[in-house]
Specification:
heterodimer, A: about 575 residues, alpha+beta, Phenylalanyl-tRNA Synthetase, Chain B, domain 3, 4 domains, 10-stranded mixed sheet, 7-stranded mixed sheet, B: alpha+beta, BirA Bifunctional Protein, domain 2, 3 domains, 4-stranded antiparallel sheet, 18 strands
Chain lengths: ~575, ~525
């Protein structure tokens, strides 16, 4: 989730409580689910991580300051522009945008002269909203412009990539849209969002001047906001109407918090949207929702009554009407994260402070216990330790080289395993299908550790199985290994034999031709006619592959059949 | 005889006794040199040197004389020169041959023809010129004078004499010695054929104490001493007439290896025992899961950033599970689309059913909890799992690709926000021995309200111990559970690392047997 930088001085000004220390900011951060990551004492820069991915309104200096201001004042500030009279400026939407990027929202912000820090925050907010909330500009992207150069109405339209030219930010010469999409760094990065369409979206004003190629890049002429500008045009385009409007609402509230007068813009669509044919933005689309007081009280384990609940929610920015048994709540216009009553429940708790809730122990009696396979595993661990074996715990995600190639498995049935589609590196690309390679990995790294070596691991492996719904079974298996100058079949056989004697698990050995072992010195462990393991002397070539200079003998055994016996 | 000397004698090692007796036998002939002692005590050089050092330390032996002899031997370079001739020999022979055939050679020509270093050539040519064996004429050409070079001849003779065995420097006549010293390895000039080492030869004599110890040994008869009690000695009772050599018990014990649990297992076992004692039942799950159970059932929308290809490992073959059990599949899909029957608005997007069947490596232990919720769990009920999970992360000191997650659920009519805090308080006290705790608001897609548990660890200070919350109704209702459910997870790796004294998360699964054998947990 986003980590943002804020400046302590800028933050103090927005908060309006005089000079604030980093410690005080940190004490307020639970209100916004924020964590202070870093504090640069020299510059006054704070780095804050914001956890809630459904609260994009908090991903800015203005948003954090607002939530704290509301708590201090006990109620939300008024944003009169949501109820403003009929706008004078319009954005006209052309037909045909539906399959590409159908929605746009816009407003103007006048009277706030953008400061250096204000500009930094504006750019950061734009990036975080478009990148994380807007899913890398796919769902939502934002454009900021210098208002004086724009002649209304603005048109949101579709053009062929060779039909329009403009000078994009970061370049000096006019370029065709096709050139921008193939050459400009932002075109290369975000152009693929528009792939598969023969026309691309374009914003231009009444005189044909290009504002931007959404969601890729702004025009350099009017789309480059600088410190000192005091009249801005803000637009948001995207694929989800409510997300587009919500993003604009957040931007408008933030600019208003910095002193700008927001003037809404009317967006005229070629056909009706879920909000009508013309949509005035910013728009307060929050719906009132009745929440039973009982629901809140039951979830929090505390009796409040409707009035204190209403007070807590108002002090968190909600618009609330309490009655006896319900509170009718409405989110502030810069939020849209109320899916269920439980979302309101949490806001009540946060507004009151988690410290206000006395912990109590769950009172109902339950019986604890381990799974069968864990019980058997624990017994096996004890027995293996008694036999002198050191336990090992290994990574389960490893490589085909370790699991198959070094084991001489070639293209045999033994080499079938679960592979990862999007491996980051070959070293971590396959789930182990047996334990022995994990033990050899330890042997290989421990050739200078004094002998004899007796090691074992009991853990999970993934065995491909077409009959399984998931295509593979997770099996708990035991592997044991002995390495020293005189290690041989009979020594490891004695260990397996004694282990299975104590586990009361009758077995027989049957010769097996397995590429990892010396021929004639390997066996399959059978129990009740079922193959449950392997035992043998490892092939010298396997030891060479692992650069192990000591004779090594192993056994491997499935543990699940032992757990399945009651 | 005093008590002291009797205990001294009984602590003597058999090797020491051999040396003492050898010197006593040789009394009339004065001090003995090392090689003489080796012979008369019948010891290997290494055994002798051990015994001598012990006896010197006990003041039973003294060094009667010490003679330092310079000994000359061939270096590796010297051995090469013996086989393939020294630069000076090669240059002289090349020049003689050229003069016979009338060929004219410069110093450069010689250098490149013989493949020699400039310093080797200039040193050798200087010497040959000085001895009058060659001369340099107009045009820088080198000619043979037909005269002999004593140095070259001495060198050949020395290489011959020394290639099989090192010799005393003083065994050589003065002119030969000078050649050796000129061509011996010294500081700043390592590429020489000879090296001179000081050979120290010591002669030893018994001290008065040593003399009396040796006398006592002879009087008592050493044959009666034994080092190891044997079944035979016990059987015939002859141990009664034997003396048992006393050991130096302050020596370090020889190392042995034992079988034992892995140190990280000891830590996890302790956690496991705590949880069982608190009434939690263990759950197990599958390493390979569908996106449905790993995420959809937990109400993580399919567009959630943590479901990205850069966060989760996808299975190559097969890519999709054949089916997801109903009614869970339809109910969860509905919860995502429009809330279904959960009282929620849902995420309001087009739930992709194929995506739900996509197979991944389990990325969170909560997947196991989701399966438990769908399997008709006990109410009230407490469950936990210690599940291996996989994350698409660059591996480094703080990130592993697979790791254990400790987490679980609590179901019951009495479950609410305050019992959630009560449970976390219990975890803090029982698992982390923390007295001070703090609850902070948190965000997880599947819980609301959500809490982070911070504790003051006795050694680490304030740290996050875990995250928890009440499962959203969008999670529980589609899986058939209609009571409130706590979901909790503990982040124990940092505590484990402190308990085991390691600083790299990869060492929790170390391949170094020595490390696994010697790591001791402090729990």
């Amino acid at each position: 989730m986003p980590t943002i930088s804020i400046n302590l001085k800028d933050f103090s000004q927005l908060l309006g409580q005089g000079t604030i220390t980093a410690e005080r900011v940190e004490a307020w951060l639970p209100l916004v689910k924020g964590e202070l990551k870093d504090h640069d004492h020299a510059t006054g820069e704070l780095r804050i991580e914001l956890q809630d991915s459904n609260r994009p309104d908090l991903w800015s200096c203005e948003g954090i300051a607002r939530q704290i201001r509301i708590a201090l004042a006990g109620k939300a500030p008024a944003y009169p522009f949501f109820k403003a009279k009929r706008p004078t400026k319009r954005v006209m939407v052309s037909p045909g945008l539906e399959p590409i990027r159908p929605y746009v929202a816009a407003c103007t912000a006048v009277g706030y002269r953008v400061t250096g820090e204000g500009l930094t925050q504006l750019i950061q907010m734009q990036e975080k909203l478009a990148d994380i909330f807007g899913r890398k500009r796919r769902t939502v992207s934002i454009g900021l412009y210098r208002l004086p150069g724009i002649v209304f109405p603005v048109t949101y339209t579709l053009v062929k990539p060779d039909e329009a030219r403009f000078t994009p930010l970061g370049f000096d010469e006019p370029m065709s849209l096709r050139e921008i999409l193939s050459v400009h760094p932002k075109g290369v990065e975000y152009g693929p969002i528009l792939a598969g369409h023969d026309r691309v979206p374009l914003l231009r004003d009444a005189e044909g001047q290009v504002l931007s190629l959404p969601p890729v890049i702004n025009s350099r002429e009017i789309g480059e906001v600088r410190a000192g500008d005091a009249e801005l045009f803000v637009e948001v385009t995207g694929t989800d109407l409510l997300m587009v409007i919500l993003t604009l609402n957040i931007l408008a509230a933030n600019l208003a918090d910095r002193g700008a007068a927001i003037e809404p813009v009317e967006v005229v669509y070629p056909s009706a949207t879920t909000l009508g044919k013309t949509v005035r933005t910013p728009l307060d689309f929050a719906k009132a929702r009745p929440i039973p007081v009982k629901t809140i009280e039951a979830a929090l384990g505390k009796s409040f009554g409707a009035t204190p609940i209403a007070r807590a929610l108002t002090a968190y920015g909600y618009r609330v009407k309490p009655s006896r048994e319900t509170v009718i709540v409405k989110l502030p216009p810069y939020r849209n994260d109320l899916m269920h009553a439980v979302d309101v429940v949490e806001d009540v708790a946060i507004s009151c402070g988690y410290g206000q809730f006395t912990p109590i122990m769950p009172s109902q009696f339950t019986v604890g216990g381990l799974s069968r396979v864990e019980q058997v595993s624990d017994r096996i661990r004890d027995l293996m330790i008694g036999l002198g074996f050191q336990e090992i715990i290994s990574n389960i995600l490893t490589s085909r080289q370790d699991l198959c190639d070094r084991m001489r498995l070639g293209n045999t049935a033994w080499s079938r395993l679960v592979e990862v589609d999007n491996a980051m590196s070959q070293s971590f690309s396959c789930l182990r299908q047996w334990i022995v390679p994990s033990l050899l990995r330890v042997e290989s790294a421990s050739t200078r550790v004094f002998y004899p070596h007796r090691v074992f691991e009991i853990g999970e492996i993934a065995v491909p199985d077409p009959a399984d719904a998931q295509g593979a079974r997770t099996v708990t298996a035991l592997g044991g290994l002995i390495a020293h100058a005189g290690a041989n079949f009979s020594e490891i056989h004695s260990c397996l034999d004694l282990l299975l004697f104590y586990l009361d698990y009758p077995y027989t050995l049957e010769p097996v031709a397995h590429p990892s072992f010396l021929e004639g010195r390997a066996g399959r462990v059978l129990s009740n006619g079922r193959a449950v393991g392997l035992i043998g002397e490892l092939h010298p070539e396997v030891l060479e592959h692992w650069q192990i200079g000591m004779p090594s003998v192993i056994f491997e055994l499935e543990v699940d059949p032992l757990a399945e016996r009651s | 005889m005093s008590v002291d000397s009797s205990s001294l004698i009984s602590s003597l090692h058999p090797l020491e006794i051999k040396v003492l007796l050898a010197l006593r036998d040789a009394q009339g002939r004065g001090p003995m040199k090392e090689n003489q002692l080796e012979q008369s005590a019948a010891l290997e050089p290494s055994q002798l040197s051990m015994a001598v050092e012990w006896l010197l330390a006990k003041s039973l032996l003294s060094v009667a004389s010490k003679k330092i002899t310079p000994v000359v031997s061939l270096t590796k370079i010297g051995a090469q020169h013996f086989e393939k001739y020294a630069p000076i020999e090669r240059i002289l022979s090349t020049v003689c041959k050229a003069s016979q055939t009338g060929k004219r050679l410069t110093i450069q020509d010689i250098q490149s023809q013989e493949g020699l270093e400039p310093t080797e050539v200039s040193g050798a040519v200087g010497c040959l010129k000085k001895e009058g064996a060659i001369r340099i004429v107009a045009g820088g050409h080198v000619e043979s004078t037909g005269g002999a070079s004593p140095t070259t001849e001495a060198l050949r003779e020395l290489l011959k004499q020394l290639h099989s065995t090192p010799r005393d420097l003083h065994a050589f006549p003065e002119p030969m010695r000078r050649v050796i010293e000129q061509h011996a390895v010294k500081r700043g000039n390592a590429n020489e054929p000879f090296r001179i080492d000081d050979h120290v030869e010591r002669a030893f004599a018994l001290t008065p104490d040593g003399q009396s110890a040796a006398d006592t040994l002879v009087q008592q008869g050493v044959a009666d001493e034994v080092s190891q009690l044997s079944p035979e000695l016990l059987k015939d009772g002859s141990w009664r007439t034997k003396r048992f050599r006393k050991y130096t018990i302050s020596l370090r014990a020889p190392r042995i290896a034992s079988g034992k649990r892995h140190p990280y297992r000891e830590f996890l076992d302790r956690v496991k025992t705590k949880l069982v004692s608190m009434g939690f039942q263990e759950m197990r799950g599958s390493l390979i899961e569908t996106e449905f159970w790993n995420m959809d059932a937990l109400y993580m929308p399919q567009f959630h950033p943590a479901r990205d290809i850069h966060d989760v490992y996808f299975v190559k073959e097969p890519t999709h599970a054949s089916a997801i059990a109903e009614p869970f599949f339809s109910r969860v899909a509905a919860a995502h689309r429009d809330g279904g029957d959960t009282g929620s608005t849902g995420w309001g997007y087009d739930f992709n059913e194929e995506r739900a069947r996509r197979l991944v490596l389990r990325s969170q232990g909560t997947a196991v909890s989701a399966r438990t919720l769908a399997s008709g769990p006990n109410v009230p009920g407490k469950y936990f799992s210690i599940a291996r999970c996989f994350r698409y992360d660059q591996v480094d000191a703080t990130h592993a690709t697979d790791f254990f997650q400790v987490e679980g659920i609590v179901l019951g009519q009495d479950i609410n926000f305050r019992t959630l805090l009560g449970l976390l308080e219990l975890f803090a006290r029982e698992v982390a021995q923390a007295k001070e705790i703090k609850f902070l608001p948190a965000y997880f897609p599947f819980t609301e309200p959500s809490v982070e548990l911070h504790v003051k660890h006795p050694r680490l200070g304030w740290m996050e111990l875990g995250g928890a919350g009440l499962f959203r109704p969008e999670v529980t209702l589609p899986l058939g559970v209609d009571v409130p459910v706590i979901a909790w997870g503990l982040g124990l790796d940092r505590m484990a690392m402190v308990a085991l004294g390691i600083h790299d998360i990869r060492d929790l699964f170390s391949s170094d047997l020595d490390m696994v054998r010697t790591t001791r947990g402090k729990f």
